[in-house]
Amino acid sequence: MSCCQCQGIESFFNKKVALKELKRYHAQGPNKTTRLLVEALKSAGVDGLTLLDIGGGIGAIQHELMDAGVSRVTSVDASSGYIEVAQGEAEQRGLAERVDYQYGDFVSLAPAISPAHIVTLDRVICCYHDMESLVGFSSAKAQIYYALVYPRDTGWFKLGVPVLNFLFWLMRNPFRIFIHATREVDALVRSNGFKPRFTGRTLLWQVVVYGR
């Protein structure tokens, strides 16, 4: 991939990291913010709907929502290691035939990706430099629901991010973390015809589910 940030994602979010995350998922289920997102969508009703999961990781959202009735999934990820682990988990669950895996930078792939009833980005916005393109293109693909988990733009993250990015620089990894203004993300989503239906927060993260 030509995207420098995506090269960093490929290096940092490798298969070893994915397998550790899958082990935690088997033991504990989805983490708190992912669980909030999934439960909000399930409460809204997902039976028979399609899902586009951007930065799908090990597939936690996909597996939970397919169990709740989602019919088909497109999973896009810039980490080949995560895609490999997600595919293996889907095969173990007998769900592999219902998932189309796309490897690469979503912004570059977007013109060839079909819309879906639901679009999810779980801790993805903070891993991408061009928020406007990522949120603009992805929210345009959502036909009914658009669901996000991303950092609160508070002092906690703003103080810690430069330190983390310095560590990535020391490791010679081009991956960086980004804090994008909540009001700017929200304005972009609303410009594609959405309104918030659910909002949840933890100390560091916010979960927002939008609907048309």
Strand order within the widest sheet?
A: 3-2-1-4-5-7-6
Tell me the count of domains.
Answer: 1
Percent of residues in helices comes to 40-55%
What is the second-level CATH architecture?
3-Layer(aba) Sandwich
CATH topology-level name: Rossmann fold
Cα gyration radius (Å): 16 Å
Binned strand content = 15-25%
The top-level CATH class is Alpha Beta
Distance between the termini: 33 Å
Secondary-structure-derived class: alpha/beta
> What is the H/E string?
HHHEHEHEHEHEHHEE
Number of helices: 9
Question: Mean pLDDT, rounded to whole units?
Answer: 94
Poorly predicted regions: none
Shape category: globular
Largest sheet: 7 strands, mixed
Can you count the beta strands? 7
What's the SSE blueprint?
Blueprint: H1 4-12, H2 15-28, H3 32-44, E1 50-54, H4 60-67, E2 72-77, H5 80-93, E3 99-103, H6 106-109, E4 116-122, H7 131-140, E5 142-151, H8 155-170, H9 182-191, E6 195-201, E7 205-211
Parallel strand pairs: 1-2, 1-4, 2-3, 4-5
Antiparallel strand pairs: 5-7, 6-7
Helix pairs in contact: 2-5, 3-4
Describe the overall structure:
The chain is of the alpha/beta class. It has a single domain (4-211), classed as Rossmann fold (3-Layer(aba) Sandwich), CATH 3.40.50.150. The chain has 9 helices and 7 strands, in the order αααβαβαβαβαβααββ. It has helices spanning 4-12, 15-28, 32-44, 60-67, 80-93, 106-109, 131-140, 155-170, 182-191; strands at 50-54, 72-77, 99-103, 116-122, 142-151, 195-201, 205-211. The protein has a 7-stranded mixed β-sheet with strand order 3-2-1-4-5-7-6, with helices on both faces. Strand 2 (72-77), helix 5 (80-93) and strand 3 form a beta-alpha-beta unit. Helix 2 (15-28) runs parallel beside helix 5 and helix 3 runs parallel beside helix 4 (60-67). The chain is globular, with a radius of gyration of 16 Å. The model has no long low-confidence stretch (mean pLDDT 94).
